[in-house]
């Protein structure tokens, strides 16, 4: 009989408040690279809503702004760090 694998403990996700709503940002633009870098990982990937705490409206704007910034070569597609 095979041994059962131990189950991993699930992380408890806290209800984070949207950092963009708190700072009063109404619209996210691709030109604000410093703000967009806060919502990307070290590798250049977009951070999920659960980890970033962004609301649905701002996460949707962040997604399109990051993609535009990548196309305009303001942000890297991926980094090798």
From TrEMBL:
Keywords: Ribonucleoprotein, Ribosomal protein, RNA-binding, rRNA-binding. One of its GO terms (molecular function) is small ribosomal subunit rRNA binding. Pfam families: Ribosomal_S18. GO terms for biological process: translation. One of its GO terms (cellular component) is cytosolic small ribosomal subunit. The keyword Ribonucleoprotein applies. InterPro entries: Ribosomal_bS18, Ribosomal_bS18_sf. The keyword RNA-binding applies. Binds as a heterodimer with protein bS6 to the central domain of the 16S rRNA, where it helps stabilize the platform of the 30S subunit. Part of the 30S ribosomal subunit. Forms a tight heterodimer with protein bS6. Belongs to the bacterial ribosomal protein bS18 family. This is Small ribosomal subunit protein bS18. It comes from Candidatus Dojkabacteria bacterium. The lineage of its organism: Bacteria, Candidatus Dojkabacteria. The gene is rpsR.
């Amino acid at each position: 009989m095979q041994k059962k694998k131990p189950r991993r403990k699930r992380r408890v996700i806290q209800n984070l408040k949207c950092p963009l709503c708190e700072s009063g940002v109404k619209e996210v633009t691709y030109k604000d690279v410093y703000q967009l870098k806060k919502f990307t990982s070290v590798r250049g990937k977009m951070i999920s809503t659960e980890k970033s705490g962004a609301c649905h409206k701002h996460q949707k704007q962040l997604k399109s702004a990051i993609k535009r910034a990548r196309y305009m070569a303001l942000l890297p597609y991926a980094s090798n760090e």
